Amino acid sequence: MSGEPRVTIRDVASRAGVSRAAVSLAFNNKPGVSESTRARILDVARSMGWEPNRSAQAMKRSGTGTVGLAICRPARQLGLEPFYMEFISGLESVLSEHSSALLLRLVRDVGEEIELQRHWWRSGQIAGSVLVDFREDDPRVPELSRLGLPAVAVAHPSLAGPFTAMWTDDGSAVAEAVRYLAALGHTAIARVGGAAGLGHSAIRTAAFTRTLRELGLDADLQLATDFSGEHGARATRVLLSRASRPTAIMYDNDLMAVAGLSVASEMGLRVPQDLSLLAWDDSQLCTLTHPTLSAMSHDVHTFGADVARSLFALLAGDDGVSRPVQTPVLTPRGSTGPSPRRTA
């Protein structure tokens, strides 16, 4: 097998001067292009050494195919993260409609993922991929786009390069959360964020800082973590051990917020009388605690389903259209209340 990247529909379309949809119709012997155009496209493809992707061909013939998803998380942590469980459930709901399958692999780092995606694609194991956890200047963008890998990026377009992007407006959601806490009288608002290198963490960090400064409040109370409950608890202890501790803490996921609630109890603080807590990625976890956790809510299951539909449209020859999904909205519950320092 040659080590050269496979010639893609995009390559053939560019050389033949036609759309990718026209190339897809010609390859699959479907109506929509003239016989002369079909013949010209196939001649161009053969001259470029085009070989069909086995998995993609199977999808065209019988509606089946395999979709790849690589996640950089320890297996134990992934099993505890409601976000990915809901997201994968949404993907699977659409894959099952297409008699398709999900090929899921956990990787140690982005370099391992690049090699894995390259192997999956060149060996014909997948028809396309869903890419997650983008970083600023993510090395996957040039490497995987060079392969011609059909993929949907779960990321802001500023991070996704040429890939079709689907994302939540995290900046607007963070601003809404900060303004809500400020309206309750909180002037010392902290944030326990995710990994600093992740693109969506950077977007949330910037929005948090910008909104607090617009309100004339201290914007320096932010700590980065790995999204785990252990790190969330540790960050909460650090914040609550300060001489001037925050009266409200925002968390970048629900798992860390639950851990923060436990730490508040261990340190003798009442929620929300002494300390308000607000989670991201609302899930059942947030409704099982006492008090229940206020959260920024969005339908993660539907998000996963929409990403899968976008990928299947891409594989069918449609031009990928990047678009935002529903912005997370505030769901107040029992863990947020007026600041204890608020004056009447």
UniProtKB/TrEMBL annotation:
Residues 323-344 are annotated as: Disordered. InterPro entries: HTH_LacI, LacI/GalR-like_sensor, Lambda_DNA-bd_dom_sf, Peripla_BP_I. It comes from the Bacteria. It holds the Pfam family LacI. Residues 7-61 form the HTH lacI-type domain. Residues 324-338 have a biased composition (Polar residues). Keywords: DNA-binding, Transcription, Transcription regulation. PANTHER family: ALANINE RACEMASE, LACI-RELATED TRANSCRIPTIONAL REPRESSOR. This is LacI family transcriptional regulator.
